[in-house]
Amino acid sequence: MPVKIRLARHGRKRYAYYHIVVADSRAPRDGKYIERIGSYNPNTNPATIELNFDKALTWLGKGAQPTETARAILSYQGVLMKKHLLEGVKKGAFDEAEAERRFQKWMEEKEAKIQAKKDQLSSESEQERKTRLEQEAKINAERAEALAKKNAELAAEAEGEQKEDSAEAEEATEEKPEENNESEAGSEETKSE
């Protein structure tokens, strides 16, 4: 029975995540499988991979063939490197302690690369956030300045109207005493007649 290590699709449309499974190559993609050894979520940045390292190594040792994507995931997690080193031990090229030391060195380098990528992504997102805040502050300042200018113009217009109203009121009060004087003069004339 040819055994494959492959991905089984799950999740909703346009937001898929995958189970890493060991299955008969004749079984449907999302159908029956022998064992689930992990999961892969490409929707995050960097992609989230959970893998049972020992089970994957065991199945590779038994002859399971990974698909291209599964091979890339296993290589990323170091399963293929560990298998390669164990084959070197079987051939007598070096002992198990040396193989473990090489594997740990490789894993440390890999972790450093992954951490560097995460740091770069977080710094880029922080920089983008700062840039957006600066742009928003600039736009808000421009809006506040325009609003202050508009309010100043309205205040100037209101002040001008108020001066005109007060000038008209003064003129009206000046005209009223003259009218009162004329009416008093007219009433005096009527009294004298």
List the helices and strands and how they pair.
Elements: E1 3-12, E2 15-24, E3 35-41, E4 48-51, H1 53-62, E5 65-66, H2 68-77, H3 79-91, H4 96-192
Parallel strand pairs: 1-5
Antiparallel strand pairs: 1-2, 2-3, 3-4
Helix pairs in contact: 1-3, 3-4
Share in helix: 55-70%
Q: Encode the helix/strand succession as letters.
A: EEEEHEHHH
Kindly state the number of beta strands: 5
Described by strand count, sense and barrel closure, the largest sheet is: 5 strands, mixed
Unreliable spans are: none
Q: Gap between N and C termini, in Å?
A: 140 Å
Structural class comes to alpha+beta
What's the Cα radius of gyration?
43 Å
How big a fraction of the residues is strand? 15-25%
The strand line-up of the biggest sheet is 4-3-2-1-5
The DSSP helix count reads: 4
Tell me, rounded to a whole number, the average pLDDT: 88
Q: What general form does the structure show?
A: elongated
Structure description:
This protein is 67% helix and 17% strand. The chain is of the alpha+beta class. The model has no long low-confidence stretch (mean pLDDT 88).
What is shown here, in short?
The protein contains four helices and five strands; from the N terminus they run ββββαβααα. It has 193 residues and is of the alpha+beta class.
